[in-house]
Write a structure and sequence with these properties.
Number of helices: 12
Number of domains: 2
Strand order of the largest sheet: 2-1-3-5-6-4
CATH class of the largest domain: Alpha Beta
Distance between the termini: 39 Å
Structural class: alpha/beta
Largest sheet: 6 strands, mixed
Length: about 325
């Protein structure tokens, strides 16, 4: 965070639709017809449907809107290039950036101010460039919470297992506790990350609400739900994050990966009789919230979900 800038006040924020997480500030209103350029920084993102959702929603608002993919893999760049890429986008006049794996936590250190949710989560997926300042937001939290309420409203949630303690895992962990999860068992192959996230969740939501774990097998025998926030299951990282024999019909299973929509984990869970939730709802809702931040205009989540579905059947070239 630059010490030379005085970040704008984060008070007077407007609530995001659904109330899944705490409200995030809305960017200054953008006059219809103005040209807007935004982008997504991440690795292995060529299959992302986010550009289509944003650009088609912008058409309904009369905006000239360009959404660029800044793919670290395609560019041959390491994640450590993030600060240079953010600076370049800022200097080129981008309105903002979305941030995805593996850069969400690192990006939080590159902004001048954080929304309340982003500060609590310690990771961001959206940067708004506003009046010479960088404002960091997290729309993953509100997106997951709203999607969960819509798609799995009646499932038990006393004991939930969370796979992954990165930026997405942190956002989803906070969202799960906000939608009524009794306790969360956090698993990550990097034990230290799981411990840090469990401590963060307890600091925010109360003692006993989260714990770091090393052995999934006994937990999944009695857990109500399982959420995958790791990249395992993406086209770039095929496979399953847990063994198939750990899935039982009483368990609901959610996966935030959305390319492909039906990951191997979800296909297997459905075959075994589990209720499932794909990453489509979260992807659509976080995009709708980010569009509002970039433009100051109300997005239409239902319309953006149609854009999302259409993007999934169109040829990608």
């Amino acid at each position: 965070m630059s010490a030379s800038k005085s970040p704008p006040s984060m008070t007077g924020t407007a609530a995001m639709p659904g109330g899944g997480c705490e409200s995030s500030p809305i960017a200054l209103s953008t006059p219809p017809g103005r040209s807007i350029v935004v982008g997504l920084i991440g690795a292995g993102i060529q299959a992302s449907r986010t550009p289509a959702m944003h650009e088609r929603e912008a058409v309904h608002h009369g905006l000239r809107y360009v959404y660029r993919l800044i793919d670290l893999d395609r560019l041959g760049l390491p994640a450590s290039a993030l600060d240079e890429l953010v600076l370049a986008a800022e200097r080129l006049g981008f309105a903002g950036l979305n941030i995805t794996h593996p850069c969400k936590q690192a990006a939080a250190r590159l902004v001048d101010a954080l929304s309340p949710d982003a500060e609590a989560i310690g990771a961001i997926n959206t940067i708004v460039f506003e009046d010479g300042h960088r404002i960091g937001h997290n729309t993953d939290c509100s997106g997951f919470a709203e999607s969960f309420r819509c798609e799995l409203p009646e499932v038990p949630r006393e004991r939930v297992v969370l796979l992954g303690a990165g930026g997405a895992g942190s956002a989803v962990g906070h969202a799960l506790l906000k939608v009524g999860a009794g306790s969360i068992a956090v698993f990550d192959t990097a034990r230290g990350k799981a411990t840090a996230l469990a401590r963060q969740l307890e600091d925010r939501h109360g003692r006993g609400r989260a714990t770091a774990v090393e052995d999934l097998r006994p937990l999944l025998r009695t857990a109500d739900g399982l959420v995958n926030t790791t990249p395992v299951g993406m086209a770039k990282y095929p496979g399953m994050p847990v063994a198939a024999d750990l899935l039982r019909p009483e368990l609901w299973v959610a996966d935030i990966v959305y390319f492909p929509i039906h990951t191997e984990l979800l296909r297997c869970a459905k075959q075994r009789g589990c209720h499932i939730m794909t990453g489509a709802g979260m992807a659509t809702l976080q995009a709708a919230h980010a569009f509002r931040l970039f433009t100051g205009l109300d997005s239409n989540p239902e319309r953006m979900r149609r854009h999302f579905d259409i993007a999934g059947i169109e040829p990608t070239g």
